[in-house]
Predict the structure.
Amino acid sequence: MEQVLFDNLVQSLKEAKAIAHGQAPVSRRIKVTTPDVKTVREQLGLSQNEFARLMRVSVKTLQNWEQHRRNPTGPAAALLKIVLTAPDTVLKALYV
């Protein structure tokens, strides 16, 4: 590994440690908002069973999301945003 690259990696790790210990400010923060699951499902006109199957989650998980006991994270949250912005494309792709 080149010395410059190695030095950059070491510096990055030192910065990450300082941020984790509250000794340095976070340089940027990304906040991903998740759309309301029930609203998305109702806009598609799907039942809870159908929407849970589409999202590849259990009906119980979907109900927890809709009742705000839990929040979708990771790929599920991303897929919800995609469903909200391009429902026809998602339905076409996932119901094949």
Observations:
- The two ends are 46 Å apart (CA to CA).
- The mean pLDDT is 91.
- The helical segments are 3-20, 37-44, 48-55, 59-66, 74-85, 87-94.
- The CA atoms of residues 34 and 73 lie 8 Å apart.
